[in-house]
Amino acid sequence: MKIAVLTSGGVDSSVALNLLKDQGHELKAFYLKIWLEDELQFLGDCPWEEDLKYVREICEQLEVPLEVVPMQKEYFDTVVNYTIEEVKSGRTPNPDIMCNNMVKFGLFLDKIDDSFDKVASGHYAQVDEEDGVYYLKCSPDKIKDQTYFLARLSQAQLGRIIFPIGHLEKSEVRQLADHYNLPNKNRKDSQGICFLGKFKYNDFIKNYLGIKKGDLVDSESGEKVGEHDGFWYHTVGQRKGIKLSGGPWYVVKKDCEKNIVYVSNQYYSDEKARDSLMVGEFNWFSGQFPASKNLQVKLRHGEHLHSCQLSRDGIVRLDSPDQGIAPGQFAVFYDKDRCLGSAIILSGLVD
Protein backbone atom coordinates (compact mmCIF):
# COMPACT_ATOMS: atom_id res chain seq x y z
CA MET A 1 0.00 0.00 0.00
CA LYS A 2 0.94 3.65 -0.27
CA ILE A 3 0.96 4.97 3.29
CA ALA A 4 1.30 8.44 4.82
CA VAL A 5 3.10 8.03 8.15
CA LEU A 6 2.70 10.63 10.90
CA THR A 7 6.06 10.99 12.62
CA SER A 8 6.83 12.86 15.84
CA GLY A 9 10.47 12.09 16.62
CA GLY A 10 9.44 9.69 19.37
CA VAL A 11 10.23 6.01 19.62
CA ASP A 12 6.69 4.81 18.88
CA SER A 13 6.21 6.50 15.48
CA SER A 14 9.81 5.67 14.53
CA VAL A 15 9.28 1.94 15.18
CA ALA A 16 5.96 2.13 13.29
CA LEU A 17 7.80 3.59 10.28
CA ASN A 18 10.40 0.81 10.38
CA LEU A 19 7.78 -1.93 10.63
CA LEU A 20 5.92 -0.58 7.60
CA LYS A 21 9.18 -0.34 5.68
CA ASP A 22 9.92 -4.00 6.49
CA GLN A 23 6.48 -4.92 5.14
CA GLY A 24 7.37 -3.43 1.76
CA HIS A 25 4.90 -0.55 1.62
CA GLU A 26 5.48 2.68 -0.29
CA LEU A 27 5.96 5.28 2.45
CA LYS A 28 6.08 9.01 2.89
CA ALA A 29 6.66 10.51 6.32
CA PHE A 30 4.91 13.66 7.50
CA TYR A 31 5.83 15.89 10.43
CA LEU A 32 3.03 18.26 11.47
CA LYS A 33 4.28 21.69 12.43
CA ILE A 34 1.71 22.74 15.02
CA TRP A 35 3.79 24.66 17.57
CA LEU A 36 2.56 28.15 18.39
CA GLU A 37 5.05 30.97 17.95
CA ASP A 38 3.49 33.19 20.66
CA GLU A 39 3.61 30.41 23.26
CA LEU A 40 7.26 29.42 22.87
CA GLN A 41 8.24 31.48 25.91
CA PHE A 42 6.64 28.79 28.09
CA LEU A 43 8.87 26.05 26.78
CA GLY A 44 12.39 27.36 27.32
CA ASP A 45 14.28 24.90 25.13
CA CYS A 46 12.98 23.95 21.69
CA PRO A 47 11.71 20.35 21.82
CA TRP A 48 10.35 20.52 18.24
CA GLU A 49 13.87 21.14 16.91
CA GLU A 50 15.02 17.93 18.58
CA ASP A 51 11.87 16.14 17.37
CA LEU A 52 12.49 17.16 13.78
CA LYS A 53 16.18 16.30 13.98
CA TYR A 54 15.32 12.72 14.95
CA VAL A 55 12.61 12.48 12.28
CA ARG A 56 15.08 13.57 9.59
CA GLU A 57 17.75 11.14 10.79
CA ILE A 58 15.37 8.19 10.77
CA CYS A 59 13.87 9.05 7.38
CA GLU A 60 17.38 9.36 5.90
CA GLN A 61 18.34 6.03 7.47
CA LEU A 62 15.31 4.35 5.83
CA GLU A 63 15.42 6.41 2.61
CA VAL A 64 11.83 7.51 3.20
CA PRO A 65 10.84 10.96 1.88
CA LEU A 66 9.76 13.48 4.52
CA GLU A 67 7.45 16.47 4.30
CA VAL A 68 7.01 19.07 7.05
CA VAL A 69 3.39 20.27 6.99
CA PRO A 70 2.66 23.73 8.48
CA MET A 71 -0.60 23.50 10.45
CA GLN A 72 -0.27 26.21 13.09
CA LYS A 73 -3.38 28.10 11.97
CA GLU A 74 -5.51 24.97 11.79
CA TYR A 75 -4.26 23.87 15.20
CA PHE A 76 -4.99 27.24 16.77
CA ASP A 77 -8.44 27.54 15.18
CA THR A 78 -9.50 24.08 16.36
CA VAL A 79 -7.58 22.75 19.37
CA VAL A 80 -6.49 26.00 21.03
CA ASN A 81 -9.77 27.85 20.54
CA TYR A 82 -11.71 24.81 21.77
CA THR A 83 -9.50 24.59 24.88
CA ILE A 84 -9.88 28.28 25.73
CA GLU A 85 -13.66 28.30 25.21
CA GLU A 86 -14.16 25.19 27.33
CA VAL A 87 -12.08 26.61 30.17
CA LYS A 88 -13.93 29.95 30.02
CA SER A 89 -17.20 28.03 30.29
CA GLY A 90 -16.01 26.27 33.44
CA ARG A 91 -15.59 22.88 31.78
CA THR A 92 -12.50 20.67 31.57
CA PRO A 93 -11.27 20.29 27.99
CA ASN A 94 -9.31 17.45 26.46
CA PRO A 95 -7.06 18.96 23.77
CA ASP A 96 -5.43 15.58 23.05
CA ILE A 97 -8.74 14.11 21.83
CA MET A 98 -9.47 17.16 19.71
CA CYS A 99 -5.97 17.16 18.22
CA ASN A 100 -6.44 13.59 16.99
CA ASN A 101 -9.98 14.19 15.80
CA MET A 102 -9.62 17.61 14.19
CA VAL A 103 -5.96 17.83 13.16
CA LYS A 104 -3.96 14.60 12.92
CA PHE A 105 -6.76 12.51 11.44
CA GLY A 106 -8.93 15.43 10.37
CA LEU A 107 -7.56 18.45 8.55
CA PHE A 108 -4.29 16.67 7.77
CA LEU A 109 -6.19 14.16 5.61
CA ASP A 110 -7.42 17.09 3.52
CA LYS A 111 -3.82 18.11 2.84
CA ILE A 112 -2.67 14.82 1.33
CA ASP A 113 -3.87 13.49 -2.02
CA ASP A 114 -6.14 10.51 -2.53
CA SER A 115 -3.29 8.32 -3.75
CA PHE A 116 -2.51 7.32 -0.14
CA ASP A 117 -4.31 4.13 0.81
CA LYS A 118 -3.78 4.57 4.55
CA VAL A 119 -2.52 6.96 7.20
CA ALA A 120 -0.37 5.45 9.96
CA SER A 121 0.76 6.66 13.37
CA GLY A 122 2.48 5.32 16.47
CA HIS A 123 -0.61 5.13 18.68
CA TYR A 124 -1.22 2.20 21.00
CA ALA A 125 -4.54 1.09 19.55
CA GLN A 126 -5.88 -1.26 16.88
CA VAL A 127 -8.53 -0.88 14.19
CA ASP A 128 -10.98 -3.77 13.99
CA GLU A 129 -13.64 -4.29 11.30
CA GLU A 130 -16.83 -6.30 11.66
CA ASP A 131 -19.73 -6.37 9.18
CA GLY A 132 -18.36 -3.28 7.45
CA VAL A 133 -18.13 -1.28 10.71
CA TYR A 134 -14.79 -0.08 12.04
CA TYR A 135 -14.11 -0.16 15.77
CA LEU A 136 -11.12 0.50 17.96
CA LYS A 137 -9.56 -2.42 19.76
CA CYS A 138 -7.44 -1.92 22.86
CA SER A 139 -3.70 -2.37 22.89
CA PRO A 140 -2.46 -5.32 24.97
CA ASP A 141 -0.48 -2.74 26.96
CA LYS A 142 -3.19 -1.50 29.33
CA ILE A 143 -1.06 1.36 30.63
CA LYS A 144 -0.07 2.73 27.22
CA ASP A 145 -3.41 2.05 25.51
CA GLN A 146 -4.56 5.21 23.70
CA THR A 147 -8.05 4.28 22.56
CA TYR A 148 -9.36 6.90 24.99
CA PHE A 149 -7.73 9.65 22.90
CA LEU A 150 -9.14 8.26 19.64
CA ALA A 151 -12.75 7.69 20.65
CA ARG A 152 -14.19 10.70 18.76
CA LEU A 153 -13.02 9.50 15.35
CA SER A 154 -15.55 8.86 12.58
CA GLN A 155 -16.03 5.78 10.41
CA ALA A 156 -14.39 7.58 7.50
CA GLN A 157 -11.35 8.33 9.63
CA LEU A 158 -11.08 4.82 11.12
CA GLY A 159 -11.32 3.32 7.64
CA ARG A 160 -8.14 5.12 6.58
CA ILE A 161 -6.00 4.58 9.69
CA ILE A 162 -3.56 1.84 10.65
CA PHE A 163 -1.61 1.57 13.89
CA PRO A 164 1.50 -0.59 13.20
CA ILE A 165 2.50 -0.93 16.88
CA GLY A 166 -1.02 -1.26 18.28
CA HIS A 167 -0.65 -5.00 18.86
CA LEU A 168 2.58 -4.56 20.87
CA GLU A 169 3.46 -3.69 24.43
CA LYS A 170 5.78 -0.77 25.13
CA SER A 171 8.59 -3.11 26.18
CA GLU A 172 8.39 -4.82 22.77
CA VAL A 173 8.49 -1.46 21.00
CA ARG A 174 11.62 -0.54 22.96
CA GLN A 175 13.19 -3.86 21.94
CA LEU A 176 12.41 -3.14 18.30
CA ALA A 177 13.91 0.35 18.60
CA ASP A 178 17.08 -1.30 19.83
CA HIS A 179 16.89 -3.91 17.05
CA TYR A 180 16.60 -1.18 14.41
CA ASN A 181 19.35 0.80 16.20
CA LEU A 182 17.23 3.95 16.06
CA PRO A 183 19.01 7.19 16.99
CA ASN A 184 16.16 7.94 19.46
CA LYS A 185 15.97 4.41 20.94
CA ASN A 186 16.69 5.69 24.47
CA ARG A 187 14.53 8.78 24.24
CA LYS A 188 11.97 9.28 27.01
CA ASP A 189 8.27 9.14 26.22
CA SER A 190 6.52 12.43 25.50
CA GLN A 191 4.12 13.58 28.23
CA GLY A 192 1.64 15.07 25.79
CA ILE A 193 0.13 13.68 22.62
CA CYS A 194 -0.63 17.05 21.09
CA PHE A 195 1.52 20.16 21.31
CA LEU A 196 -0.37 21.60 24.29
CA GLY A 197 0.92 18.64 26.28
CA LYS A 198 4.37 20.21 26.21
CA PHE A 199 3.20 23.34 28.03
CA LYS A 200 2.72 24.00 31.70
CA TYR A 201 -1.04 24.11 31.44
CA ASN A 202 -1.57 26.96 33.91
CA ASP A 203 1.00 29.11 32.07
CA PHE A 204 -0.86 28.53 28.84
CA ILE A 205 -4.22 29.45 30.41
CA LYS A 206 -2.71 32.51 32.10
CA ASN A 207 -1.51 33.79 28.73
CA TYR A 208 -5.10 33.89 27.42
CA LEU A 209 -7.29 34.42 30.49
CA GLY A 210 -4.97 36.10 32.97
CA ILE A 211 -5.63 36.33 36.71
CA LYS A 212 -8.92 37.29 38.34
CA LYS A 213 -9.07 36.91 42.10
CA GLY A 214 -12.10 35.13 43.49
CA ASP A 215 -13.33 33.38 46.62
CA LEU A 216 -12.70 29.82 47.71
CA VAL A 217 -15.87 28.84 49.58
CA ASP A 218 -16.40 25.83 51.84
CA SER A 219 -19.30 23.98 50.20
CA GLU A 220 -20.51 22.63 53.57
CA SER A 221 -20.51 25.85 55.61
CA GLY A 222 -20.80 28.45 52.85
CA GLU A 223 -17.92 30.38 54.43
CA LYS A 224 -15.05 31.92 52.53
CA VAL A 225 -11.86 29.99 53.33
CA GLY A 226 -9.41 31.52 50.86
CA GLU A 227 -8.85 33.05 47.43
CA HIS A 228 -7.99 31.77 43.97
CA ASP A 229 -6.58 33.33 40.79
CA GLY A 230 -9.55 32.49 38.56
CA PHE A 231 -12.03 29.63 38.36
CA TRP A 232 -10.41 28.56 35.07
CA TYR A 233 -7.37 27.22 36.95
CA HIS A 234 -9.51 24.64 38.75
CA THR A 235 -11.38 21.52 37.73
CA VAL A 236 -13.89 19.42 39.65
CA GLY A 237 -12.15 16.78 41.74
CA GLN A 238 -8.88 18.70 41.81
CA ARG A 239 -6.78 18.64 44.97
CA LYS A 240 -3.48 20.15 43.86
CA GLY A 241 -2.97 23.90 44.14
CA ILE A 242 -5.74 24.77 46.61
CA LYS A 243 -3.23 25.55 49.39
CA LEU A 244 -5.53 25.53 52.42
CA SER A 245 -4.84 24.08 55.85
CA GLY A 246 -7.16 21.53 57.44
CA GLY A 247 -7.43 19.46 54.28
CA PRO A 248 -7.03 17.75 51.99
CA TRP A 249 -9.41 20.05 50.12
CA TYR A 250 -11.02 19.21 46.77
CA VAL A 251 -12.85 21.31 44.22
CA VAL A 252 -16.56 20.42 44.33
CA LYS A 253 -18.09 22.88 41.85
CA LYS A 254 -17.60 26.31 40.28
CA ASP A 255 -19.80 29.37 39.86
CA CYS A 256 -18.37 30.89 36.68
CA GLU A 257 -20.52 34.04 36.72
CA LYS A 258 -19.46 34.97 40.25
CA ASN A 259 -15.94 33.50 39.93
CA ILE A 260 -16.43 31.34 43.03
CA VAL A 261 -14.75 27.98 43.49
CA TYR A 262 -16.45 25.70 46.03
CA VAL A 263 -14.18 23.33 47.93
CA SER A 264 -14.68 20.59 50.50
CA ASN A 265 -12.51 18.73 52.98
CA GLN A 266 -15.24 16.06 53.26
CA TYR A 267 -15.08 15.05 49.61
CA TYR A 268 -14.89 11.33 50.28
CA SER A 269 -17.70 11.11 52.83
CA ASP A 270 -20.06 8.17 52.37
CA GLU A 271 -23.12 10.26 51.53
CA LYS A 272 -21.35 11.71 48.48
CA ALA A 273 -20.81 8.55 46.50
CA ARG A 274 -20.29 10.22 43.10
CA ASP A 275 -21.08 7.04 41.25
CA SER A 276 -23.31 8.39 38.49
CA LEU A 277 -23.08 11.01 35.76
CA MET A 278 -24.95 12.50 32.83
CA VAL A 279 -23.41 12.32 29.35
CA GLY A 280 -24.40 13.53 25.87
CA GLU A 281 -23.19 14.12 22.31
CA PHE A 282 -22.53 10.43 21.71
CA ASN A 283 -20.11 9.20 19.07
CA TRP A 284 -20.82 5.50 18.49
CA PHE A 285 -18.58 3.85 15.93
CA SER A 286 -21.46 1.60 14.85
CA GLY A 287 -23.82 4.57 14.54
CA GLN A 288 -26.19 2.87 16.99
CA PHE A 289 -26.70 2.82 20.73
CA PRO A 290 -25.10 -0.37 22.18
CA ALA A 291 -27.47 -3.31 22.65
CA SER A 292 -25.88 -4.18 25.98
CA LYS A 293 -26.53 -1.94 28.96
CA ASN A 294 -23.64 -3.48 30.87
CA LEU A 295 -20.46 -1.87 29.61
CA GLN A 296 -17.16 -0.55 30.87
CA VAL A 297 -16.19 3.13 30.84
CA LYS A 298 -13.08 5.26 31.20
CA LEU A 299 -13.55 8.78 32.55
CA ARG A 300 -9.94 9.73 31.81
CA HIS A 301 -6.89 8.29 30.10
CA GLY A 302 -5.33 5.43 32.04
CA GLU A 303 -5.84 1.78 32.73
CA HIS A 304 -8.76 2.13 35.18
CA LEU A 305 -12.12 0.96 33.86
CA HIS A 306 -15.45 1.18 35.68
CA SER A 307 -18.12 -1.38 35.00
CA CYS A 308 -21.25 0.65 34.31
CA GLN A 309 -24.85 0.70 33.21
CA LEU A 310 -25.75 3.18 30.48
CA SER A 311 -29.33 4.27 29.83
CA ARG A 312 -30.58 5.84 26.62
CA ASP A 313 -31.25 9.12 28.38
CA GLY A 314 -27.50 9.45 29.03
CA ILE A 315 -27.30 8.45 32.68
CA VAL A 316 -24.23 6.37 33.52
CA ARG A 317 -24.20 4.44 36.79
CA LEU A 318 -20.77 3.25 37.90
CA ASP A 319 -19.95 0.13 39.88
CA SER A 320 -17.81 2.20 42.26
CA PRO A 321 -17.38 5.89 43.12
CA ASP A 322 -15.19 8.18 41.04
CA GLN A 323 -14.22 11.47 42.63
CA GLY A 324 -12.98 13.09 39.40
CA ILE A 325 -16.15 13.39 37.31
CA ALA A 326 -15.48 16.63 35.43
CA PRO A 327 -17.95 18.23 32.99
CA GLY A 328 -16.36 18.72 29.58
CA GLN A 329 -14.22 15.61 29.82
CA PHE A 330 -15.02 12.47 27.85
CA ALA A 331 -16.54 9.17 28.87
CA VAL A 332 -15.26 6.39 26.61
CA PHE A 333 -17.21 3.14 26.50
CA TYR A 334 -15.93 -0.40 26.06
CA ASP A 335 -17.25 -3.91 25.66
CA LYS A 336 -14.29 -5.92 26.95
CA ASP A 337 -11.32 -4.99 24.69
CA ARG A 338 -13.44 -3.25 22.05
CA CYS A 339 -13.91 0.52 22.21
CA LEU A 340 -17.47 1.36 21.17
CA GLY A 341 -17.29 5.15 21.17
CA SER A 342 -17.59 8.10 23.51
CA ALA A 343 -19.71 10.87 24.97
CA ILE A 344 -19.09 14.20 26.66
CA ILE A 345 -19.60 14.40 30.43
CA LEU A 346 -22.32 16.98 31.09
CA SER A 347 -22.48 16.70 34.88
CA GLY A 348 -21.89 14.45 37.84
CA LEU A 349 -24.93 13.26 39.77
CA VAL A 350 -24.64 13.02 43.53
CA ASP A 351 -27.41 10.88 45.01
Question: How would you describe what is shown here?
Answer:
By secondary structure, this protein is of the alpha/beta class. It has three domains: 2-122 and 164-201, Rossmann fold (3-Layer(aba) Sandwich), CATH 3.40.50.620; 211-264, Adenine nucleotide alpha hydrolases-like domains (SH3 type barrels, Roll), CATH 2.30.30.280; 276-349, Translation factors (Elongation Factor Tu (Ef-tu), domain 3). Helix content is 24%, strand content 28%. It has seven helices and 17 strands. It has helices at residues 11-22, 47-62, 72-88, 95-111, 155-158, 170-179, 201-209; strands at residues 2-6, 26-33, 66-70, 118-120, 125-130, 133-138, 161-162, 214-218, 224-228, 250-255, 260-264, 276-284, 294-298, 306-310, 315-318, 330-335, 338-349. The protein has a six-stranded antiparallel β-barrel. It has a five-stranded parallel sheet with strand order 3-2-1-4-7, with helices on both faces. The longest helix is centred in the first third of the chain and has 17 residues, at 72-88. The chain is globular and about 65 Å long. The mean pLDDT is 91.
